[in-house]
């Protein structure tokens, strides 16, 4: 950014003094010219065989010349002042832009109830390209909470487990889901999503039945857009 030019006070004072002297000298010169013109006009008017009209025209010409000189001096002074202001004036501050508003954050799934958690998982599926997303959890859901079609065309069946940090998803939970996800819901990708973790027996059963276990760490990354969605992980 170009820095504004600041002149020393002494320089500015000398400039004002020089301008004042020039203005005074010009004023005296114009007064003398007008006096001389008046005297010449009077002398011409009183002489024999004089032409008063010529004397009057001469006086008018002198007055017009004086007026033009005064106006020219004022215009030059105004131009100097404008140029000086343009040089010494500081640059205007850069406009302050409002902060950019980003996309709203997804809800913190660890702090909501089971029904809201199912809804949040369904919205994550929709956000990342799934179609035909439905929340089917509740009484008689036979283990399925969210049904959808993945972006690559597979039938997705999700069971949601909204547990606290100290409550892990156990083997019995996986066994109940494993008994219905393929046989009843025709899953091509079966996933258990939890806000917590899985016990080792649960992980062992899931591996045998090709059920994807999506724990709280994976869920937070998916939720924040920093990790893969369940259908983006390698096939079991």
Automatic annotation (TrEMBL):
<keyword id="KW-0472">Membrane</keyword>
<dbReference type="GO" id="GO:0003677">
    <property type="term" value="F:DNA binding"/>
</dbReference>
<dbReference type="GO" id="GO:0009307">
    <property type="term" value="P:DNA restriction-modification system"/>
</dbReference>
<dbReference type="Pfam" id="PF04471">
    <property type="entry name" value="Mrr_cat"/>
</dbReference>
<keyword id="KW-0812">Transmembrane</keyword>
<feature type="domain" description="Restriction endonuclease type IV Mrr">
    <location>
        <begin position="111"/>
        <end position="220"/>
    </location>
</feature>
<dbReference type="InterPro" id="IPR052906">
    <property type="entry name" value="Type_IV_Methyl-Rstrct_Enzyme"/>
</dbReference>
<keyword id="KW-1133">Transmembrane helix</keyword>
<dbReference type="InterPro" id="IPR011335">
    <property type="entry name" value="Restrct_endonuc-II-like"/>
</dbReference>
<feature type="transmembrane region" description="Helical">
    <location>
        <begin position="21"/>
        <end position="39"/>
    </location>
</feature>
<dbReference type="InterPro" id="IPR011856">
    <property type="entry name" value="tRNA_endonuc-like_dom_sf"/>
</dbReference>
<dbReference type="GO" id="GO:0015666">
    <property type="term" value="F:restriction endodeoxyribonuclease activity"/>
</dbReference>
<dbReference type="InterPro" id="IPR007560">
    <property type="entry name" value="Restrct_endonuc_IV_Mrr"/>
</dbReference>
<protein>
    <recommendedName>
        <fullName>Restriction endonuclease type IV Mrr domain-containing protein</fullName>
    </recommendedName>
</protein>
<feature type="transmembrane region" description="Helical">
    <location>
        <begin position="51"/>
        <end position="70"/>
    </location>
</feature>
């Amino acid at each position: 950014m170009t820095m504004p030019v600041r002149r020393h006070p002494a320089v500015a004072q000398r400039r004002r003094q020089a301008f004042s002297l020039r203005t005074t000298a010009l004023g005296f010169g114009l007064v003398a010219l007008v006096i001389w013109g008046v005297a010449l006009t009077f002398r011409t008017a009183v002489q024999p065989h004089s032409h008063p009209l010529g004397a009057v025209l001469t006086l008018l010409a002198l007055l017009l010349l004086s007026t033009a000189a005064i106006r020219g001096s004022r215009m030059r002074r105004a131009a100097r002042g404008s140029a000086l202001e343009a040089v010494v004036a500081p640059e205007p501050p850069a406009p302050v832009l409002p902060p950019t508003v980003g996309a709203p954050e997804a809800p913190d799934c660890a702090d909501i109830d089971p029904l809201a958690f199912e809804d949040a998982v369904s919205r994550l599926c929709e956000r990342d390209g799934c179609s035909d997303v439905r929340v089917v959890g509740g009484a008689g859901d036979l283990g399925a909470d969210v049904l959808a079609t993945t972006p690559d065309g597979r039938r997705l069946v999700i069971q949601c487990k909204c547990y606290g940090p100290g409550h892990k998803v156990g083997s019995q939970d996986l066994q109940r889901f494993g008994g219905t996800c393929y046989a009843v819901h025709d899953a091509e990708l079966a996933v258990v999503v939890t806000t917590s973790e899985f016990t080792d027996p649960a992980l062992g059963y899931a591996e045998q039945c090709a059920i994807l276990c999506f724990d709280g760490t994976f869920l937070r990354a998916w939720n924040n857009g920093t990790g893969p969605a369940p259908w983006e992980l390698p096939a079991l």
